[in-house]
Amino acid sequence: MNRQPSIPTLEDVAQAAGVSTATVSRCLNEKEKVSKSTLSKVMEAVENLGYTPNFNARAMAARRSNTIGAIIPTMENAIFARGIQAFQVALHEKGYNLLVSSNVYRPELETELIKSLVSRGADGLLLIGHSRDSETYQYLERRGIPSVLAWSMQPGQTHTCVGFDNRASMHPLADKVIELGHRHIGVISGIVEGNDRAQSRLEAIKDSMTAHGLTVDPDMIIQTFYDLDNGSIAFEQLMQKVPTPTAVMCGNDVLAAGAIAKAREMGIKVPEDVSITGFDDIELAKHVYPALTTVHVPHREMGRRAADLLVDLIEDRGSASIIQLDTEVVMRDSLSPPKT
Amino acid sequence: MNRQPSIPTLEDVAQAAGVSTATVSRCLNEKEKVSKSTLSKVMEAVENLGYTPNFNARAMAARRSNTIGAIIPTMENAIFARGIQAFQVALHEKGYNLLVSSNVYRPELETELIKSLVSRGADGLLLIGHSRDSETYQYLERRGIPSVLAWSMQPGQTHTCVGFDNRASMHPLADKVIELGHRHIGVISGIVEGNDRAQSRLEAIKDSMTAHGLTVDPDMIIQTFYDLDNGSIAFEQLMQKVPTPTAVMCGNDVLAAGAIAKAREMGIKVPEDVSITGFDDIELAKHVYPALTTVHVPHREMGRRAADLLVDLIEDRGSASIIQLDTEVVMRDSLSPPKT
DNA sequence: TTGTAGGCGTTATCAG
DNA sequence: CTGATAACGCCTACAA
């Protein structure tokens, strides 16, 4: 009695099957190098004992883990869900597992998370955006850990990446807003520091405004964390400015959804009294009322391509590539010309 | 040249500091057992070399990983976000890391994920709900891996858990709906199979109806996956039934949000033409229009308590406990008496 | 306080 | 096709 819970090991299986551990290992990893008879014998033992290989031991001995890590800014809203999901499905097909962590939008934490993932034996990493100090890249390079950057893509950068030009993507939408006649434009941006996506999107809006001869009033730009409540709060603040904006452009759909909710609460009609735009085209975008005019990003494709790139890198096929994806403004109902 | 990227090991550090690997190990794990002078010497070497301990090796040698795993049905919407977030923060304070996987609402996958987490050396597991075959529990028990169940709690169950009684929680809301005068009630439920939370919530509604002398028409109950689109689709189907429901109760807030969106699209006023209710009280609930009447679940506390329980179990303090949390109906605007 | 040495569960190299 | 056996990087008695 009191038999301690014994976890079966390779050795146990070997014994039960009357072969060496090496053979069992082969049965598990390179079936083709084993005779049919011993294979079935071994597999039976595996079944009976309920054997599950010890991942840590395996990773250590094989010097690879078939695991890749991803660090995303947040899991709290759906912004990254679709892309990561596609990423993980694609990885699965290639025989890799995915480990995701989130840095809760605190870029300082990323380095720590990277180290953690690496120390866990990640064969490769998916990182979001470009903003991080070069030490981090060096760290990865020293250890020979390939990584691909996603969700962003900056002219002139050289690291393997798959993404879209956030600036170029926001541009057409901003142009549209202005061409519709809006002259007083409020902006609810994500926190720009350490976030090149947020920064690029904001810059695109500013650029567009100046290009059209509008002056950008810093007071009409609010930076805040990506979440519904903050979208609401920022919107309320913006609507108190003078002159009141006739359009509010948001750094993403979540912020925009928060803004729309607050508008209704304040009795402000969208888009009659004020237009609101988003970015990302997450599922929520077409479910809010009025449906959100936003920029569609091919998240799924991005995830798939990222997986391809990363695995190629890991398995020594292909080298640094840069894949730029196209985005598209999708006009729905939250944007219209300003009331005259 | 072509110096292969050499990852520093304990041994490297030991050499650089002029001590044994054992001492370095102590400096990293039990500082108090080392003299100040050697400690600083060692730490310096660690810095210089940029040493990061190899997690796999450590887990293997120490026979523990300080890692706990969680398996949630989905990361695609915010249902589990708050609770898991709190869980992870609490764990962090106790010196544990969290690994989360999601089974995308396919209960069959859970077993596989559990094995994966276990083979990765998880010291303990957080599982959602009770529905799983006993083999799984046996598997965990054999290996001495403690687990706590959350998000649910069924009378008479014995496994350590922290949660709320889904049935008892939905009951008051259903009663409320009926007492308001609704006689034709549609239900958009989550898929019941392999999901005790969805099942309990649905049963609560049925119970309440029969208790009030209403007959439950199976045709007025739709089961579907938790997501916005499905909520919309199901709502549309429901509104085509005869007699038309005057209230639609949803298995969670996401479904309800989808229903609300569709209602507007169809020109149906909520709550004037039809009332809609949710469950969970996620952030979205108060941002939709009309704000959702739902059941508030103390997600954060649940996460915290789960962490306490699990770590106690792992560290051999305390034994199986059952913590029941209270939920609360929160009346907002999406529920009103039926039009007479 | 510090060092020595054995072992954790697998994989991989080399003979047989 | 199969079996020894040496790593893999670290922890932990046990000794000194």
TrEMBL record, chains A, B:
The keyword Lipid biosynthesis does not apply. It comes from Cognatiyoonia sediminum. InterPro entries: HTH_LacI (IPR000843), LacI/GalR-like_sensor (IPR046335), Lambda_DNA-bd_dom_sf (IPR010982), Peripla_BP_I (IPR028082). Residues 8-62 form the HTH lacI-type domain. This is Transcriptional regulator, LacI family. The keyword Lipid metabolism does not apply. PANTHER family: LACI-RELATED TRANSCRIPTIONAL REPRESSOR (PTHR30146), TRANSCRIPTIONAL REGULATOR (PTHR30146:SF33). SUPFAM superfamilies: lambda repressor-like DNA-binding domains (SSF47413), Periplasmic binding protein-like I (SSF53822). It holds the Pfam family LacI. Keywords: DNA-binding, Transcription, Transcription regulation.
